[in-house]
Design goal:
- The protein is an alpha/beta fold.
- Helix content is 37%, strand content 14%.
- The chain is built from 15 helices and 15 strands.
- Helix 3 packs antiparallel against helix 6.
- The protein is elongated, with a radius of gyration of 24 Å.
- The model has no long low-confidence stretch (mean pLDDT 92).
Length: 440
Amino acid sequence: MILFYTEKLNPRIEYAAKLIFTDILKIGIRITTNSAEFLSSGLPKVNYSNERFGNEFFIKPNSFLFYKSISKPVVTPLSYNGEHCFFESSGESDLPFDPFAGAFYFVTRFEEYIETVTDNYNRYPSHKSILSEYNLLKKPVVNIWARMLSGKLKERYPAIEIPGPEFKFFSTIDVDNAWGYAHKGFIRCSGALMRAVLKGNFIEAGERLKVLTGIRQDPFYTYPLLDEVFKDNEDRVIFFFPLGDYGRYDKNISWKNRNLQELIRNTSAKYSVGIHPSYSSESISGERLLKTEISRFSKITGTKPEKSRQHYVRLRLPETYRRLIDNGIREDYTMGYASQTGFRAGICTPFCFYDLNKDMVTPLKIFPFQVMDVTLHDYLGMTPDQANEEIEILMNEVKKAGGTFISIWHNESLSGRGNREGYREVFYKMNERGFNWSNE
């Protein structure tokens, strides 16, 4: 147990302190504003105030956590023990930076409330992040700072027991297109077949005919392969199914299709499943659409979804998360970038969403991901070997810091078609490594 003292407690300080001690370091914390209680206690102590009392661990706060506004702060880096840090403290502090201010800034996605520039899909662009500016997207900086703090606390209080870094791992699968050719209805199937012929793509046309006549298995039907990969590790994967209406960016078959419904029910019998809110659910009518899609999920599975990930990882703060909370979602898996790998929130530990506008912590738990298959083979154009190397680097960062490695894959990426050739083997290696490391 850590006794944490601050002169004036506010929701931001409380959130940041619990994030570092409870969520990341897995040690208890008691917060007090009573200096007499703090001085008389025999517990290991952290003094987060403007005045040092004695030989307790002392961090003079940066002023950032005492502001109530959402205005752009001055965020400049400093180097400490070979790592980049932010929010300078003072020379008399036991750390030259304020890890609580830094953790709060990055984990709440403070910069996303300020930035108005978006990409073509109305998403916050990775290159606008301060972590990107200082080449830190591939580092779970918040976890690293927490480990720095724990090391210093151990020096000051040798008897304190702080668990070492623990690596956790699971995969997530987005079923954007349950089938490539099959079960899409006469009009869609015949239209696609005609387009392939008119474009002279006779290989595709032939393959479509073989699938539609039952001669060949649909190329996106990779579910038996996934069953094989996750045999005896069924608790380490989550499937997300889209149930929105057909549109420019929502291409799955109708939610009424009995084959899709059967696939969802069979999957939910073996694995954890969640909702994959449509691209259109982030439109003006998004609230109504989200409710409709959740209702469809419930009709198919018999249960309300508690897990969610936005299609195209479209995320607007705080609107997206508020909608999810209002509709009973307890866990979200959208926190990450489509265009880059790494740590969007600077952290590899699940955390509760903090609503900056309301200045309050919410019950919605955020599970940040570090890598997505589409990022590797489409946005970054990586070969399978390069993708393997990138994934291993990120997994090592998570292992050193003690966190949860989460990836996004799509069933069609395992088909080995087009620029996905060789990516099935990348998927195999990632999961094998993850299972082994998390069992060590």
